[in-house]
Sequence to fold (288 residues):
Amino acid sequence: MNTKVIDGKAHARAVREALRPRVDALKSRGVVPGLGVVLVGDNPASRAYVRSKGRACAEVGLHSEQYDLQPTASEAEVLERVHALNADARIHGIMVQLPLPEHVRVERVIDAISLAKDVDGFHPQNVGLLATGHPNLVPCTPAGVVVMLEREGIDLQGRHAVIVGRSNIVGKPMAMLLLQKNATVTICHSKSRALAALTRQADVLVAAVGRAKFIGGDMVREGAVVIDVGINRLPDGKLAGDVDYASVLGRASHATPVPGGVGPMTIAMLLANTVYAAERIAGKMGSE
Ligand code: NDP
Fold:
């Protein structure tokens, strides 16, 4: 079987292009959508992500501000920064880069982000809205996966989607979004028995495990769509996904590469969420 390689960069570009008229419309009303990014510590991967988010904002005409806090910054300092961004009228989206140092409780920080500016969609109230079928701001990575599948013309209705990974940032919201698209959803995790027997049932297989090349071709049904969320750094410095890409080529109907698959879409969705948040906030101001 000829596997179609899904070009995440091209999809991300199209998503960004579609934002331009919306950004222009906001600007004509005097609103420049703004993203505030908080980085705590000096994790090199986090630094690189934050840099690319800032660049992507500039590309579509969004204002962005980055706040670098020391690795020793206290929880109170992080919360103070979030509160300041909540109150800042130039900022419509707030993202706190994860992971946070151990002494800072991630739940406390996420809870502090204003619901209207929660462009990562991690606030418990946004999580609840998604789970009850009324999505507002939705986590960027799974949202990007769904947009990419739709743009590829892959019908999800009634198909079996199997997700490996149940984190709050990828696996669980991915399941909720696929369920909303009327897929039949199975979520697997480290305690799942007979994992390969489950993954082989997938029409759409989403890998969000955090282990390089964990999903081999033998775990994939012929003709399945394989979405690789994983980003793992190999000892030689190269990036690898959670899927053993070479072994699924020729077996899957579609597959996302790493890099160049889900990653660029995640950033594009962050921009989309920021524009959406700005529209909502500006709309509310306009109707006051
Ligand atoms: P987490 O470590 O939070 O979650 C990993 C999940 O995989 C857990 O649910 C865990 O199960 C499960 N798992 C671990 N080992 C196994 C196993 N042997 N068999 C079955 N399941 C297993 O990771 P994230 O969800 O945050 O991220 C997953 C990957 O996606 C990472 O590589 C990360 O870098 C990448 N990522 C990429 C993004 C992008 O933009 N492309 C954005 C976010 C993340 P259990 O719950 O039982 O421990």
In short: Residues 140-263 form a domain with the Rossmann fold fold (CATH 3.40.50.720). The pocket of NDP is lined by residues 141, 164-167, 169-171, 188-192, 195, 208-211, 229-232, 242, 262-263, 266 (CB under 6 Å). The longest strand covers residues 34-40.
